[in-house]
Design a protein that fits this description.
Number of helices: 14
Strand content: 15-25%
Distance between the termini: 23 Å
Radius of gyration: 24 Å
Strand order of the largest sheet: 16-15-14-13-9-12-11-10-17
Bound molecules: NADP nicotinamide-adenine-dinucleotide phosphate
Largest sheet: 9 strands, mixed
Helix content: 25-40%
Shape: globular
Mean pLDDT: 91
CATH class of the largest domain: Alpha Beta
Low-confidence stretches: 1-15
């Protein structure tokens, strides 16, 4: 997908960034092409890659720096919408790129990379390779003496596939790096709206006094995608929606919505509060878990066809009803839902407030409650539904109207919110870990997730089929209907 790019005045709105070298292991891979390189280019255009900072791509593919620059030129043109004829910025960016042929598992390239390292600048190493290479890279960086005390490593998801493997990986990284050097990336945390969630909660007097089970009926978190798993089938068949989305992205959103106010917006203060949320999560009852698998429709293949396994028990959809055992949230359910091949691509959080305790207008006026909706994609923004009088003569009937704060509208056409990777990569360079997961957070998330997975595996549960491009299996709707509630629409 091409992202819109707006030329920013060179050097404007600079959050101060010093000189850095960013080494991208896996610099020829899909993530580098689609996300990392375009993100860095946009930050370059914003003046945040001051000379002589460099991006050094590293992979096994045999090519020189000129060939790599040509490869990156094509990627940037594919994924960033650069106005015609405006290639000067791109060429200036490419001049700050280098490439090294390197094998994470062998000795090729490491001496060359060592020779390329320059003193007096931030060194960041992005592990944009399969998780099977994380240990090799950590050991090689150490063996070749490539890191300094303030060097950083960026580790992509998946971070383990259960508690045991996450602990092993944490131990491997900890053998070579201090926790303050490790940036476990979850790109959901870099989204503008996700951070706005904290601004809305903790920057306004309005919501926080109501932010508890006394006033909030329930909270829904939905991350729906229209794509299937084709192209990622091998990974996905081993992971499923629980490992791919719930254990990380949805859980992080749940943490931000449910956490206590941290004393300061500082890495450990925020992460301490998120950790407390994960640790307060109750085990989930089996009848509060709904798993589904998409079937074929409109000429697209079914999940089982996509993964080439006609007996697959991996879920491409998941809905859960969760509870937090703490003072703030006792009695307020959190409903989480995520799936592939849903009717639309939409990620949002809906906070449903309780009804007013008594209606002075009588039953004929109708009853309404407030809802705060935070949309993460596609159109980031926040809406508050408030109750007003239905216009017209005679009687008092109530209706809901949205107080809509679409960010593009509120902040003006020219506003450019950096995408998640832009922000997160710059946070790595600045040395700010607030939006990255700490070792104990990741392990606590797996400690909650593992028994749920083991539970359905030991019961031999098979995911329920659902039609592609719908809202998922019937059981997901039943999960809320049993409680007298409804999912908020994906289309609205
Ligand atoms: P990919 O397209 O398969 O790329 C893998 C990269 O690793 C290639 O550049 C490959 O280049 C390099 N590589 C493989 N073996 C190597 C070795 N022995 N030594 C050095 N380099 C080696 O994978 P990807 O999709 O970019 O994903 C990279 C990481 O990001 C994975 O951990 C994935 O789970 C995570 N991730 C990806 C996405 C996404 O949208 N793609 C999203 C979230 C997370 P050579 O073959 O030239 O060596």
């Amino acid at each position: 997908m091409v992202t819109t790019w707006r030329r920013e005045t060179f050097g404007s709105r600079i959050g101060l960034v010093g000189i850095f070298d960013l080494v991208v292991f896996g610099g020829t891979g899909d993530l580098a092409r689609r996300k990392i390189l375009p993100a860095l280019f946009k930050r370059f255009c914003a003046g945040q890659m001051p000379k002589p900072s460099r991006l050094i791509g590293a992979a096994r593919t045999d090519m020189d720096t000129e060939a790599y620059r040509a490869f990156v030129r094509i990627a940037i043109k594919e994924f960033v919408d650069i106005p015609d004829g405006d290639d000067a910025a791109l060429e200036a960016f490419l001049a700050q790129l280098e490439y090294v042929v390197l094998d994470a598992r062998g000795d090729t390239g490491w001496a060359t990379l060592q020779g390329m390292m320059a003193p007096d600048r931030v060194r960041a190493f992005y592990f944009s390779v399969g998780p099977g290479l994380f240990e090799d890279l950590a050991c090689k960086l150490h063996q070749w003496n490539l890191t300094e005390d303030d060097s950083r490593i960026v580790v992509e998801k998946p971070f383990g596939r259960d508690l045991e493997t996450a602990q092993e990986l944490n131990a491997i990284l900890a053998a070579h790096f201090h926790e303050s050097q490790i940036y476990r990336i979850d790109h959901y945390l870099g989204k503008e709206t996700v951070q706005n969630l904290m601004a809305v909660r903790f920057g306004n007097m309005l919501f926080e006094p109501l932010w508890n089970s006394q006033y909030i009926d329930h909270i829904q978190i939905t991350v729906a995608e229209t794509v299937g798993v084709a192209g990622r089938d091998v990974y996905y068949e081993r992971a499923g929606a629980m490992r791919d989305m719930v254990q990380n992205h949805l859980m992080q959103l749940l943490c931000l919505i449910a956490m206590e106010p941290p004393a300061k917006f500082e890495p450990d203060a925020v992460r301490d509060e998120k950790l407390k949320v994960i640790r307060a999560l109750d085990p989930v009852e089996p009848h509060h878990i709904v798993r589904g698998q998409y079937t074929s429709a409109d000429g697209v293949a079914s999940y089982r066809e996509d993964v080439g396994n006609d007996r697959s028990k991996t879920e491409s959809f998941m809905a859960l009803k969760c509870h937090l055992s703490n003072w703030r949230w006792a009695g307020t359910p959190f409903y989480l839902r995520t799936g592939k091949r849903m009717e639309v691509r939409n990620s949002k959080i809906t906070v449903v407030f309780k009804d007013a305790p008594h209606s002075i207008f009588g039953p004929e006026a109708g009853r309404h409650n407030n809802e705060l909706t935070i949309v993460l994609q596609p159109n980031e923004g926040i809406t508050l539904d408030v109750t007003i009088k239905e216009p017209g003569q005679g009687g008092m009937r109530l209706m809901d109207v949205p107080l809509d704060m679409s960010f593009a509208e509120a902040l003006g056409e020219g506003s450019h919110a950096p995408d998640a990777y832009e922000r997160l990569i710059m946070d790595v360079i600045r040395g700010n870990q607030t939006l990255f997961m700490r070792n104990d957070e990741v392990e606590a998330a797996w400690a909650w997730t593992d028994p749920l997975i083991r539970g359905w595996e030991s019961r031999g549960d098979v995911p329920k089929p659902y039609d592609s491009f719908t809202t998922g299996p019937d059981g997901a709707a039943q999960l809320l209907r049993r409680d007298g509630r409804e999912w908020r629409g994906l289309l609205s």
